[in-house]
Each structure stands twice: as C-alpha cells, then as structure tokens.
Amino acid sequence: MDFDLPEGAAAVREGVLAVAGKYDQDYWGRCDTDKRWPEEVWRELVDGGWHSLAIPEEYGGGGQGLLELAVALEALAEGGAGGAASFMYLLTPAFGGLTIARHGTAEQRRELLPKIASGEVETCFAITEPDAGSNAINISTQARRDGDSFVVSGQKIWISGVERADFLVLVTRTIPAAEARPRTAGFTVLLVDVKEAVAAGTLTYRPIPKLGTNTVASSMVFLDGVRVPADRVLGEPDQGFAVLWDILNPERILAAAGGVGSGGLVLRLACEYAGERAPFGTPIGANQAVAFPLARIKAQLELARLMTYKAAWLWDRGRPCGSEANIAKLTAADAAWQAADRAFQTYGGMAYSLEYPIARMFRDARIAKNIPVAEELVLAHIAQHELGLPKSY
Predict the structure, then answer these.
(1) Looking at residue 161, what is its pLDDT?
(2) Using CB atoms within 10 A of its CB, is residue 386 exposed (0-12), middle (13-18) or buried (19+)?
(3) Cβ–Cβ < 8 Å for 123, 169
(4) Which of 109, 148, 366, 380 has a Cα-to-Cα distance from 26 of 20 to 30 A?
(5) In this structure, is residue 2 part of a structural domain?
(6) Which stretches of the chain score pLDDT less than 70?
(7) Domain span at 47
(8) C-alpha span between 68 and 47 (Å, rounded)
(9) What is the mean pLDDT of the chain?
C-alpha cells in the first residue's frame, strides 16, 4: 500500500492552491453576496487546465482521473473557496467532462470534449424532481421517441448552473417506473442543448431563493416538448442506469472532497482566531474546552480524506466504489459541518457578524448533510449492503 499522492496529483494540489491563494475571503464573500459566479477564478482554472484534468489528452485535457479532480477540488476549497469550490468542479469537469469521456460516443467526444477543455462549453446535471425527491427510481420526466429525436416533458428541481450551461445532462424515463422490469430499466440520459431549447421556448427555468452556496443559482427547470436528437444519448437508450451510477458516484466523491477542503479551511480560521483571541490574557486556544474539539475535527477530516481518495482511486480503476463513495460523503459532510459549528463557537458572538466569513461557511456546510444524497439514505445503504440488515424502504 502506498499512501503518497501520485506525482501528478501532488502537482495538481500545488497548482490549484496557487490559484486559490490569489483570492482572499473578501473576494469570496462578495461573490456570495452578489450571487455571482467566481468568474475570475474559473478563468484561471480553465487557462491552467485545472478544470479539464480528467479529459483525455487527445481532446486537450490532462489525461488524469477522478482522483486528481478530487484533489483539485479539495485544494480550491481549502485554499479559500470553501463551499463555492464544489460546484466549480461538479458542473462542467465532472458532469460534463468525466461523463462524456467515459460514456460518450466517439462523435460526442470529438465534438464536446475539446470545447469543455478550452472553456467554450459548460454543462450541468438534472435528475431531481419535485415529487420523486431522493427516490431517483420514481422520476417521471418522460422522453418519447419521435423519429430521429426524443421529445422530453417534465420538471426538475434544484438544478444548479443551468443559467450558465450550454448542455444539460438530463436523466429521463423512456419506460415509466411502474412498467420497468427491473425497476432500474428504462432510464435514458440525454445531452440537451440548453440555449437551443430556451430559444425554442421548450425549456424554461426559475431560480430558487436559497440560504447559501449563492455563487451558483439553483433552479426549477420546466421541459415542455424539448426535442433532443437521438445521437445525443449518453450510453444506450433504456440502459442509462449504468451511466447514472457513473455520475452519482463521482458526484458523491467530489462532494466529499469539497467537504474535506471546506472543513480544513474553516478549521484553520478557527485555530488562527483561537491562537490570537485572548480576552483573559491567555489565548482561548490554550483551553482544552476550545482546543480538544478542534483537534477531534482534525482527526475526522483526515479520516474522511483517506476514504475520499480510496473511493476516487477505485472509480478510476473501474472497480465498484458505491459503498466507499457513500462513506466518504457521509464522513466528510459531517466533519465539515462539525468544523463550521465549532468555528462558530470558537468565534463566539463575532461569528454572527458578516464581517467574518464564518457565517457564510456555516450556512454552506449545513446543506452538505443533505446533498447530493441525504445522510439517512447513505446510512440505509450501509445498513443493508454492508451490514446485511433488512431493507427499510
């Protein structure tokens, strides 16, 4: 066993940390307040090739894998971006680049991967629906075959980045859930040209006002007869569940990397404050009541990092990684939330002031316990598949 990062991944970490180091907390705070995509950072990631690490070299990418993407995301979050980093690596590098590289046709790869690598094309992902929620099996967005096209109707919710996207990676039902045998049959994943559908009036979206992660909008998406050419299918019609798992597992792994990085950032800020704040003449960090909870969080983050890297390593090798991805996401989200909560307690009343970044990090950390999958569902999966307990749903 070798616990050293591969040379390429270590270089990625240093390169992304150098980008992140140019932007202070005031910058990230302004992006959040203004509800603005961190365009300056994004352009640096694109120009440096830090966003296209998992795209094969023949298409202009770095020729690396999910592990390197996870390391890059963790570094950006830890370097200052916090929760804002996750969507910067999920939307286009993972949902677009990673998915098309593994499941796209030769023509799709030739057309889209160079444009993703150059920053010309951006993507987003849509699976969640108002009625289905976390039960992906029961989505009802329908894609009906009509000649050389599919015609799509339905609704999606909490779709982040659609306002920027050129293509939407859309999960549909081509066989209704009630008729599918097995239940995982009948999924078809489509690449929807967002701007074309908006211009045709068949795709509309409405941003949802939300508590945090305001550097990217999350929207309700309405699909009313969206026409998608049949050559825009990712994988095979009716067999999209295999593609879906190769989206959901990397999403959980990258969410875990974001949690580790965000937790590391807020822990560092808390320790800096605890080392300087001395209302009674001695830094508050000298008190065990302050120091020990912070030390425990450090241990939790290190454990979450190990599982995150293991899950990414497995995915890169085409090996099963569902349980590892779930455990990584569960432990990283919890560690990030504990770090934010403890940082809030360490800062005391000043954490409530928007002059400090703790309030923003506190808001952003909480949602990670619910997305991209609720921790209760992760625990149910572990109970059933790892412990052999009866299925609960």
Answers:
(1) 98
(2) exposed
(3) yes
(4) 366
(5) no
(6) 393
(7) 7-122
(8) 17
(9) 97
